[in-house]
Amino acid sequence: MGIFVISYSSINIWGALVSASSDETLHLWNLRQKRPAILHSLKFNRERITYCHLPFQSKWLYVGTERGNTHIVNIESFILSGYVIMWNKAIELSTKTHPGPVVHLSDSPRDEGKLLIGYENGTVVLWDLKSKRAELRVYYDEAIHSIDWHHEGKQFMCSHSDGSLTLWNLKSPSRPFQTTIPHGKSQRDGRKLESCKPILKAEYKTCRNSEPFIIFSGGLAYDKACRRPSLTIMHGKSITVLEMDHPIVEFLTLCETPYPNEFQEPYAVVVLLEKDLIVVDLTQSNFPIFENPYPMDIHESPVTCTAYFADCPPDLILVLYSIGVKHKKQGYSNKEWPVSGGTWNIGAQTYPEIIITGHADGSIKFWDASAITLQMLYKLKTSKVFEKQKIGDGKQTSEIVEEDPYAIQMIYWCPESRIFCVAGVSAYVIVYKFSRHEITTEIVSLEVRLQYDVEDIITPEPETIPPFPDPSSQLPSSKSLSGSTNTVASEGVTKDSIPCLSVKTRPVRMPPGYQAELVVQLVWVDGEPPQQITSLTVSSAYGIVAFGNCNGLAIVDFMQKTVLLSTGTIDLYRSSDPYQRQPRSPRKNKQFIADNFCMRGLSNFYPDLTKRIRTSYQSMTELAESPVPLELERCKSPTSDHVNGHCTSPTSQSCSSGKRLSSADVSKVNRWGPGRPPFRKAQSAACMEVSLPVTTEESRENSYNRSRSSSISSIDKESKEAITALYFMESFARKNDSTISPCLWVGTSLGMVLMISLNLPSTDEQRYTEPVLVSPSGTLLTLKGAVLTFSCMDRLGGLMHPPYEVWRDPNSLDDNEKGRKRKLVMNSPSTSQEMGDQQYAVVCSEKQAKVFSLPSQTCLYVHNITETSFILQADVVVMCNGACLACFCANGHIMIMSLPSLRPMLDVNYLPLTDMRIARTFCFTNEGQALYLVSPTEIQRLTYSQEMCDNLQDMLGELFTPVETPEAQNRGFLKGLFGGSGQTFDREELFGEASAGKASKSLAQHIPGSGGIEGVKGAAGGVMGDLARARIALDERGQRLGELEEKTAGMMTSAEAFSKHAHELMLKYKDKKWYQF
């Protein structure tokens, strides 16, 4: 409900915070420690808290309630005072209606003994705390939302529900002496202004040398219904409206003085939005905002994927920051960020860390995560590569890609070579190279066809074959692998060889930073839309990018801009295919059997008989505890939604076997229009869904051998073998090879590992002219579940990184840089004259991990990681100069295994998987760290390194930094005599237990907290507890002694100066007579 900062005298500095929560509880937080903790809590039992006010330099908190009563809380003991202002005594006895909840409380700047109480119905009462009676009452027709004093204490301003501001004078409370509707328009009669939206909060701040500032939120005219939330600043006759990107939660004006009875001199306004925090500079006429040093906009567009890189090259952060500064928005205030409380600690960490986030609008953000906070370094917009989608430019509306067609799906980054590659939801891949120089060039694009025309098996039992309808009743549309059946254009022409997006054909200006080198797009094939990309990898040393989906694999040479390989997964096996599959019979017009299945997209990443995750950009669900029926399993689609177990996707069909589609069903199927790509709005990485298989004993037994017997349902016959993992490495392409060569390792959703041999030209000159030869080697390794990751180790157990090219600027103006040859770092295994295996291959699937010895391909170690669950994320990371395998399981366990022995080192039940956002964004990195998106706006970093845990306390910052309270201005003799009450107001005497008594115990319950000294006192006794208490007390005593010493030194300096001036004055007038003065 609200947060109120406690400030105390310059000697007894509290460093605490009071918060009022929605469960009618007040909490007192201790901010003097690195981890804030609750000292006290006070829970109200009978009344709801509506407003709180803490006067400056006071320990008594005023609390207003929904019933209209005002209670007083002692902050030191956090106990209610017996002094209560009842609503029926505050209003006149003749009033017959309840005034409503308390919406405002504040003490008068002239007299601290006068409390201003505002009620919702428009009643304002000035209450005399000493005499316990109402000194003044004000009534207004419109409801009150907020009140603020003039610093002299003679006037106050109210904001109302009709968008008006009223100014009241204490000498004439019968009516306001000024009423304004800032955004109101004159009505036809010209007499009264039109009512506006409520002004939720208004602040009235005075200046010594200019007109006062009136700042308020809301109050816009009703005819501006589509207008964004705004903050209005009135200064003199000028009215400035600042429109916000998000709804306003609260705002606070920063002033030069904390004393309410002085000229406020405002200089900035802090505005808390629902998804941002901004500060407006009031010292400049155009009211610019301050540049925020903290990342408040990580969710500016929903995060769809993440990548985490620890111990990356140290110069990268400076390079990215220097480029990113040039791209920042202009028009910020030239002053420093005014909110300067607290201090940051860097800690003992010495290596740089970078986090990359991909977003739904196609943007990529690079963040510096080396310290506790995030700092955005550089932003890349991938959508600038494509033409903007416009309606009415010759295409049908139904053929245009829906919202968020540029959403980032996968990221691959090589920090050493600075090659960056992204895969988007519209089935495209962009390769970027980094340059410090701006260029204007055309973007090279390639189109790739990936088609899957193979039957999985040929030995089903007759009774398992679903009944097929007559050919005349079949729909004239081809099978869509993404769930869409609308594949035939309205003119009857099948879409073919058409990409989902259009790459710009004109020369494009590319600023310094990452510049597009090549765009590769998958195209429609015989009316089938391209499938989303499931795996991606790049080799800067080879100049090759490889990616795959549920149809097959594509390998592209981005140096020569040519396609090297585009083939279905089955073609990679050649004669070593473990399944007996036959090509489909030729056909001129493919037909879709709509009543047999609902085609699946990303759900084909994993086998049907294991648990799997599918991406859905439309809905977010939680893990189901019970198995999903087999019929529901058949409705998995990237565009399908499930509500209460029913498939509700507009592109999915009935899942009942043998049921024909009626004409009404056909019209429903085609309501999205013919040929529309099956992409939905990518709301965030949270839009994930878990699909659970039918858990049978038979499925467990057959999960390893993937037997395609007749016992498997007909749904399994249609499952695709997706490419789920790719990895470039210098390795042995075939069994018992004697020499290493460039290879591409390919992992599939059926647990198969294939190797593709790459034959590269020998020299740099030939690399740009001679073709690269690509050929499957036939090597075959098997695992349980879909393959997730690969890695290589040498014979000594050292991790072998993939080869890379040392970065050089491709657009450098230096002739020496241009003429420099490519410098490759190959990381090849150490050569040995001994015969035998020279290399270890580490392969991890969603069920198990294996270590193979190469080139003999002998399985040395195997570890079944899980039987009842499945692995979401696995990676080989470096930790303490050694390699280990890190896994995150769907049951919430984080497991670490040694390499190459696969010995379990850590198994922690960290986080049960209840949110699919975690599954989508979880990623490991070196030095024992990982991260995931814990909410749409927050990134959670975690560590399983003991060294990091030991240094974590030192890395935390200090929230509280003592600041000496500024001295109050000298009001002067005459102003003090005539300007107000000169008597001091003793709240302790008035609200203390001796005079006010005790409050009713049933009204509120005091709950002791566990933070600070109170927490130490409540802990178990002993030497450690005594030491902790002594340390806290010693720190506080030392701080107070330091402040006292500074004040003593200041007083001595002032005394010496006074003595010096007095002596000079005595010498000046020593010999003068009285009549000479």
Automatic annotation (TrEMBL):
Localisation: Cell membrane; Cytoplasm
Biased composition (Polar residues): 639-660
Pfam families, alphabetized: LLGL, WD40
Bias (Low complexity): 471-484
InterPro entries: Lethal2_giant (IPR000664), LLGL2 (IPR013577), V_SNARE_CC (IPR042855), WD40/YVTN_repeat-like_dom_sf (IPR015943), WD40_repeat_CS (IPR019775), WD40_repeat_dom_sf (IPR036322), WD40_rpt (IPR001680)
Region: Disordered, residue numbers: 461-490, 639-675
Major location (coarse): membrane
Keywords, comma-separated and alphabetical: Cell membrane, Coiled coil, Cytoplasm, Exocytosis, Membrane, Protein transport, Repeat, Transport, WD repeat
Gene: STXBP5L
Domain V-SNARE coiled-coil homology residue range list: 1012-1072
A GO term from the CC aspect: plasma membrane
Subunit text: Interacts with STX1A and STX4.
Family: Belongs to the WD repeat L(2)GL family.
WD repeats: 137-178
Membrane topology value: Peripheral membrane protein
Keyword S-adenosyl-L-methionine attributed: no
BP-aspect Gene Ontology terms: exocytosis; protein transport
The name this protein goes by in its record: Syntaxin-binding protein 5-like
PANTHER family in UniProt: LETHAL 2 GIANT LARVAE PROTEIN, SYNTAXIN-BINDING PROTEIN 5-LIKE
Stated role: Plays a role in vesicle trafficking and exocytosis inhibition. In pancreatic beta-cells, inhibits insulin secretion probably by interacting with and regulating STX1A and STX4, key t-SNARE proteins involved in the fusion of insulin granules to the plasma membrane. Also plays a role in neurotransmitter release by inhibiting basal acetylcholine release from axon terminals and by preventing synaptic fatigue upon repetitive stimulation. Promotes as well axonal outgrowth.
Signal peptide segment: none
UniProt keyword Cell division present: no
